[in-house]
Amino acid sequence: MESFKREDTYDIGVKLAEASKPGDVYCLYGDLGTGKTVLSQGFGCGLGIKEPISSPTFTILKEYHEGRLPFYHFDVYRISDSDEMDEIGYYDKIDGDGVCLIEWAEIIEDILPSHYKKVSITKDVEKGFDYRKIIIEEI
């Protein structure tokens, strides 16, 4: 998929959420500034969440329960060891009845579930400052 502006990335998040079902795990891969949080905001909207979605960089996990499904939004950028994830209830969330979205998933790759949707976001400034290529793979 291609995104030529912020709204495109947001809309891709909306569509992913609308198709999601309980137990789905989405893992976001991409450098700083590629649009992971924008996609996450669209994802929240697609689940029917009204409150603002922000990246849980310092809290690691934000939970939203007002939408169609419980939404567990992880940002593991500041995790130094996968063992820290147990302390925040990671395993309960990924095995639960909601949907999980994990920013910086490569940091905890050793504890990702065996099946998830990998969402890779990359920039290509030659195609424009706001251009993003978004690849979604079933793992």
Describe it for me?
Helix 1 packs across helix 2. The mean pLDDT is 94. The protein has a single domain, classed as 3-Layer(aba) Sandwich (Rossmann fold), CATH 3.40.50.300. By secondary structure, it is of the alpha/beta class. It has a seven-stranded mixed β-sheet with strand order 1-7-6-2-5-4-3. The two termini are 18 Å apart. Helix content is 24%, strand content 25%.
Looking at this protein, list some descriptive labels.
139 residues, alpha/beta, Rossmann fold, seven-stranded mixed sheet, 4 helices, 7 strands
Write the element-wise H/E pattern from the N-terminal end onward. EHEHEEHHEEE
Q: Give me the number of helical elements.
A: 4
Number of domains: 1
User: On the 0-100 scale, what is the average pLDDT?
Assistant: 94
Level-2 CATH architecture: 3-Layer(aba) Sandwich
Could you tell me how far the N terminus lies from the C terminus, measured between alpha carbons in angstroms? Answer: 18 Å
Rg over CA atoms = 14 Å
- The class by helix and strand makeup works out as alpha/beta
CATH class: Alpha Beta
Quantity of strands, as a count: 7
Report the β-strand fraction as a percent range: 25-35%
Which overall shape is indicated by the principal axes computed on the Cα atoms? globular
Provide the CATH superfamily.
Answer: P-loop containing nucleotide triphosphate hydrolases
And the CATH topology? Rossmann fold
Major sheet details: 7 strands, mixed
**Helical residues, percent:** 10-25%
* Major sheet: arrangement of strands: 1-7-6-2-5-4-3
Spans of at least 5 consecutive residues with low confidence: none
